[in-house]
Design a protein that fits this description.
heterodimer, A: about 600 residues, mainly alpha, three-stranded mixed β-sheet, about 5% strand, B: mainly alpha, rod-shaped
Chain lengths: ~600, ~400
């Protein structure tokens, strides 16, 4: 709006004062607005962290109930004995399989599977939405399946239940879409931490397998939720570890060879199990739909028949992992249990019975590890590692090889054992198992399951390992001449005519780079002559610069305004390394 | 000219027709909703926590009941000799209470009972790693190590058990464990180690008659008679009429050749139990030694001479009786020059015949030099007759003891 009397001097002064006043008012409002926004966001962050604690508490309670329900069902259906009667072992998993199949198909179709890739789907596709119906279904069906002896575990379902609880609370609190998307992993970490009684491993698993990166904004909430869920769980079920871990000390480095052998064997077992599941699951799914009602029952029957001779393979099997660590089995028995459990778990999982893979993975790993330890004692009795230690390392090996979560696998063993001296054997074994599995099975388990379900989720392994392009990968040699601000204008005229522009460096206060076009030089020379310093033609703003290690995004941010961005050394901003432009970036991306 | 209203909170323009800033009022209402929701969630937690607590308590009770039930079944099976069944029972019990050390030990006992000693050893060792200070566990390990012939490890575990933590009656348990260790050491001929342990045991045992008797008996078995005698004296200090202590103390003193003191204890022991034949026999011998011993420093020269004479006569008489029984010729043939094939008996008899006249003078016989010379001959005669005719009895046995006491030689 123009003031009609603004051409008068007084009016000008008045208008300037008025504009100034408006500027002050605007800036005041802006300040007010910024402060209000900050308070709002600060408040929402606080609410979010508080919510993480509440989610953790609810997840902890849910996991406590889940665990005692599984045990109660096991005692009620299979009896309290470690070796239930033949009739029960045959009938209970079979009949429970029918019930589970019916409930999954009719009422809780989303409760199928382990729960990890379902949670990932919720994060990446459904903005963190997990229907609460799924939580209820997961609770009932997994309790029944695991309690009746199906060879599955409670951890992955706990992860999904935690995520479902978090999703429900987030929706009820009307959180923003961004917050809702990250709240599911927070609940997942809480559920897993309580089920596994190890908060660090749970946090790492969620970061490694669900989120895929270390996001500072979510990390605090994830840790808070995991810790609060573990606190709640321990206050009800006690703080004792799931397994009584034998002490460890590496007396001779030659023992690392035995752990390396364990890594190789564990890697091969992981590969075999991955192949078994990847082969059988789609084929069983492709069978006529009526067979889906009987597949869990058939799986239960097979597992029951095996359970007559090897009752250790029924259910999650934590008791027997503990017994393996206490050296209560011969190495032959341990090897047999590891191999049979691999088969029973594959049968249970591929039949569509809901349940997790963590516990069976730990079971198989412990048995294989124990068998390797037993063999080592047989052939190299002077080596000191106990069978229990090998069983412990074996658990990490299968985690690294089968679930393909190398960091979690290392920290899980450390957290369970509470002994950092075990880290070297664990790293040796886990790395070997991971590399073998990765070499011969390109797609990790959870990505494979998602793809078999027709969902292409981002592979966390690929995200972890993808190489990012930096400025140094895309920069090119500068074709432009460089001058100093003190140089005469006439020196720059010819080069500017050739390339259209020149780069001028000014060291007045700090090293700054300026872009000067040839027509500006020519105009200035025409007006004031060529015997003037270049600083007389410098534009008001210097050019932005980037460094060779800068991310491409930094350069791209400026490329709309400038045709290129100078790349300078961090330790000497006056030295031009090159330039980066749209063309050079596209070229580098194509070459990758 | 329309005047625009600005929100005093955020500075944004409030649209025409609106009374309040829609942006801020939305935040406010959202904030209120969140606050209320969080309060409701906390309330729900407060309701859920006791509910879950009740369920968990019920579950824990069920677990404890199952653990107890299976442990009882295991004990019953173990009592009935069904070790394999007991193993399964105890293993099941540990599923529901895997920290119950009593059940873990019973499981180990079941392993031992089913002759799976190596497995039991490995299992106990694994338990030990968790609880190296558990006294009962160490005791089990010690017993198993002893059974497996791992002697040094057995001793170590016994020591651990003595120093370890006992849940019930620790003082008495430590004493009984140390006694078991002493028995083990005595059984393996490690008497010195046993005596060391006994010294420690005596220091910690309550001052009672039964404890002193026990210690004395063990000391006797370890060959520490002096320490045993002290223990018997402690017994008698507490109860003067402990017949066994009196008899044993008398026996020790008899063995230590302190016949005079032995007589005192033995007489009191026989008075309390006249049927104690062994004590009677020792008393009789002791009294004979005391009545025949010519080396008693309190004797007069005449009395010593008389005793020397009596002892000599008894020894010579045994030599003659022995020679008669075995048809040994004692007299030397009256050949000139004397024969070269003289028997030891003939030599001893000839020496005795040579000494005989000097015994007529009691004063001369009581002379210390003569006494020693005569008693040396007596000692040689007793030794020879014992070899030919067997151990002496009665007075001759007393003479043998006198000779042994004063010569230190084996007659």
């Amino acid at each position: 709006m123009t003031d009609p009397g603004s051409d008068r001097p007084g009016a000008v002064a008045q208008t300037e004062v008025g504009m100034e006043q408006k500027k002050v008012d605007d800036s005041g409002r802006a300040a007010l607005s910024n402060s209000s926004d900050q308070k709002f966001f600060q408040r929402e962050t606080n609410v979010f962290l508080l919510l993480a604690v509440i989610i953790g508490s609810f997840a902890g309670l849910a996991v406590v109930l889940f665990r005692i329900t599984i045990d109660w069902i096991r005692i009620s259906l299979l009896s309290s004995s470690l070796a239930p009667s033949t009739l029960r072992v045959i009938l209970v998993p079979t009949l429970a399989g029918f019930v589970v199949a019916f409930l999954v198909i009719r009422f809780f179709p989303r409760a199928r599977g382990s729960g990890v890739n379902q949670t990932k789907s919720a994060v990446y596709i459904y903005d963190g939405f997990i229907p609460f119906n799924t939580v209820i279904g997961k609770f009932i069906l997994c309790s029944l399946a695991i309690g009746s002896g199906q060879s599955l575990g409670p951890e992955d379902p706990s992860l999904q239940m935690g995520a479902g609880i978090a999703s429900l609370l987030g929706r009820r609190l009307q959180l923003t879409r961004e917050r809702l998307r990250v709240i599911a992993p927070i609940g997942a970490a809480a559920g897993l931490a309580a089920a596994f009684n190890s908060p660090i491993s749970a946090v790492l698993f969620v970061i490694e397998e669900v989120i895929g990166n270390w996001s500072g904004g979510v990390l605090g909430a994830i840790v808070l939720a995991a810790v609060s869920s573990v606190v709640v769980m321990r206050s009800f079920l006690g703080s004792e570890s799931m397994f009584r871990i034998p002490p460890f000390h590496l007396v001779h480095t030659s023992e690392l060879l035995a752990y390396a052998a364990l890594g190789v064997i564990g890697g091969l077992f992981s590969l075999a199990m991955l192949r078994l599941i990847s082969y059988a699951r789609p084929r069983l799914k492709a069978l006529p739909s009526w067979t889906h009602y009987v597949q869990p029952a058939a799986a239960g029957l097979l597992i029951g028949i095996i359970g007559i001779w090897l009752p250790q393979t029924l259910g999650a099997g934590y008791i027997f992992i503990d017994q393996a660590m206490r050296d209560q089995y011969t190495w032959q028995m341990l090897a047999l249990l590891g191999a049979v459990k691999m088969v029973t778990t594959s049968i249970s999982f591929t039949s569509g019975t809901p349940g997790g893979m963590f516990a069976p993975t730990l079971f198989i790993g412990a048995m294989i590890g124990g068998a390797v330890g037993g063999l080592q004692h047989l052939f190299f009795p002077w080596l000191t590692g106990s069978v229990g230690t090998y069983a412990l390392v074996g658990m990490g090996v299968l985690f690294a090889g089968f679930l393909r979560v190398p960091m979690t696998s290392v920290f899980m063993v450390l957290e369970l054992s509470g002994n950092y001296s075990i880290i070297v054997p664990v790293m040796v074994s886990n790395t070997i198992a991971y590399l073998i599995s990765r070499q011969y099975q390109e797609v990790p388990l959870f990505d494979l399951l998602s793809r078999q379900d027709g969902i292409d989720l981002p592979s966390m392994e690929a995200v972890r390992e993808e190489s990012s392009i930096h400025v140094e990968d895309a920069m090119q040699h500068s074709p432009y001449r460089e001058f100093h601000a003190e140089d005469w204008l006439e020196m720059a005229l010819q080069p500017a005519t050739t390339h259209g522009l020149v780069l001028v460096q000014s060291n007045t206060y700090a090293v700054e780079w300026y872009l000067v076009r040839s027509e500006d030089l020519r105009n200035k020379a025409a007006k004031e002559g060529a015997k003037i310093p270049l600083k007389a033609v410098l534009p008001s703003e210097p050019m932005p610069v980037v460094y060779p290690d800068s991310r491409l995004e930094e350069a791209l941010r400026h490329l709309g305004t400038y045709p290129f961005v100078p790349v300078v050394r961090r330790d000497n901003p006056g030295e031009l390394e090159g330039i980066i432009s749209f063309e050079s970036i596209v070229k580098a991306l194509r070459a990758q | 000219m329309s005047s625009e209203a600005y929100c005093p909170t955020c500075g944004r323009v409030i649209p025409f027709g609106e009374k309040a800033c829609p942006y801020c009022s939305r935040r406010k209402s959202l904030g209120l909703r969140q606050d209320t929701a969080i309060l409701i969630l906390f309330g729900a937690l407060l309701v859920l926590v006791p509910f879950v607590g009740v369920l968990v308590r019920a579950y824990n009770h069920q677990e404890q009941a199952l653990a107890k039930d299976w442990a009882e079944r295991g004990k019953e099976d173990l009592r009935n000799g069904k070790a394999e069944e007991a193993l399964v029972d105890f293993r099941t019990s540990m599923v529901y209470a895997h920290d119950d050390s009593a059940v873990r030990l019973q499981y180990a006992q079941a392993l031992i009972a089913s002759h799976r000693l190596d497995e039991a050893w490995t299992y106990l060792r694994t338990l030990w790693v968790d609880e190296p200070g558990d006294a009962r566990l160490n005791l089990q390990l010690a017993r198993l190590a002893a059974r497996l012939g791992r002697d040094s490890e057995a001793v170590d575990y016994y020591h651990n058990a003595i120093l370890g933590a006992w849940q019930e009656n620790p003082a008495q348990s430590r004493i009984s464990t140390r006694i078991e260790l002493i028995e083990f050491l005595l059984g393996h001929g490690r008497n010195n180690d046993a005596v060391t342990q006994l010294n420690d045991l005596i220091n910690v045992m309550p001052d009672s008659v039964s404890n002193h008797i026990l210690a004395a008996n063990l000391l006797m078995r370890a060959g520490a008679t002096d320490r045993a005698l002290t223990e018997y004296r402690d017994v008698l200090r507490l109860d003067r009429n402990q017949q066994k202590a009196l008899a044993d103390a008398g026996t020790i003193l008899y063995q230590k050749e302190q016949y005079s003191d032995a007589v005192g204890y033995l007489e009191r022991a026989i008075k309390l139990n006249p049927a104690d034949a062994f004590a009677k026999e020792l008393l009789a011998t002791s009294q004979q030694v005391l009545s025949l011993d010519p080396f008693d420093p309190h004797l007069s020269t005449l009395e010593r001479g008389r005793r020397v004479g009596k002892v000599f006569q008894l020894a010579l008489g045994r030599l003659e009786d022995c020679a008669t029984t075995h048809q040994i010729q004692l007299d030397l043939p009256a050949d000139e020059p004397p024969p070269t094939n003289v028997t030891p008996e003939q030599q001893l008899y000839a020496s005795a015949e040579k000494i005989k006249p000097s015994l007529r003078n009691l004063k001369s016989a009581g002379d210390p030099d003569n006494t020693t010379r005569i008693m040396d001959l007596v000692s040689a005669i007793e030794a020879r007759t014992a070899r030919i005719c067997g151990n002496p009895v009665d007075a001759n046995y007393a003479i043998q003891l006198i000779c042994r006491k004063h010569n230190g030689a084996n007659p």
